[in-house]
Amino acid sequence: MADTVSLPHTDRFFELRFESIGGLGAHVGGQIVAKAAVLRMGLNGAHFSSYGSEKKGSPIKSFIRLGAADKPIRTSAPVESPDVVTVFHRALLGNPATVAGLRADGTLIFTGAPGELPDSLAELPRTAKIIRIDAQRIAAEENSRPNAVLIGTLAEAVPFFAADILLEALNEQFGRKRPEAAANNKVAFERGNTEFEILTDIGRAEGDMPVIRPDPLWGYRTAPAGGIILNAGSTAWNDLSISRTGWLPVLDMDKCIHCGSCDMVCPDLCLVWTAEGNSATPAATKLSGIDYRYCKGCMRCIETCPTGAMTRETETPGLAARLNKPLFPQLVD
User: Fold this and answer.
1) Which end of the chain has the smaller Cβ count within 10 Å, N or C?
2) Which position has the higher pLDDT, 145 or 237?
3) Tens digit of each residue's pLDDT (9 = 90 or more) over 27-80
4) Is 314 exposed, middle or buried (CB count within 10 Å of its CB: 0-12, 13-18, 19+)?
5) Would residue 33 count as lying in a domain?
6) CATH code of residue 170
7) Domain co-membership, 137 together with 276
8) What CA–CA distance (Å, rounded) separates 35 from 47?
């Protein structure tokens, strides 16, 4: 074990929150960081994650709480006022809860392409440190996962984290069961440790970000009557775009033969078909595009397409909006 490190705050814990969707490695990433802090840095630490029954593609939060060796951790409450927020998926920044509670002197690390600057970042504290890293692209290039890239960035962003210690913990996690993955993760970690960008003059807010709790605190006086559905489901307004993990299907109209094979395997019915002609019986019904609002990137259409008209492409900023064909034009603003 390495010498015990000193935390920047002696009056409270140092807390981190990973914001992600299932499948990008946030849960395992949190385990790796917490284990390294406890076993290799002499700190007290706790880690746990929050996610639904369908992990892949669904929202997940991973919490890490660190304290000095002589400071017991006696809480397992979610991290509401983090010193560091790490965002694994760019679309999550559209939800104010993603960065809620970030401290004025805290750090935000987010996945984004070079030049990408979501408008929501202006709501961050003026004094917060903001770091951008194209984790999904690097992970795809190195046959790794975004967690390895982002742990590398985290090692540089947090002063008391040593890169060699976190890399050793990362290698230990995969070295025995999947040595080939360990080699790829090492390269991804090193790129995450060096290829990030520090953004300046972005936030406009003063002080800490307000805390947002995901669920209302009902009591016996304020709880709604039983059987009432407060948030009714709506297929038309559902949005699955946040479930994509960096790729999306793209239709080449010149190769499409409109056979319908893709439509038979699409679990979310996001393919848009257009009837030709104005008669009661259309002369033909042809595939005209994809509504990416409802596409979660499962790639079943690509696997089924007999002509190669459907291809898997890297989801760069604005690509889905540019190619989108709405299923419900009447709902488009």
Assistant:
1) C
2) 145
3) 999 999 999 999 999 999 999 998 876 566 788 999 999 999 988 999 989 999
4) middle
5) yes
6) 3.40.920.10
7) no
8) 9
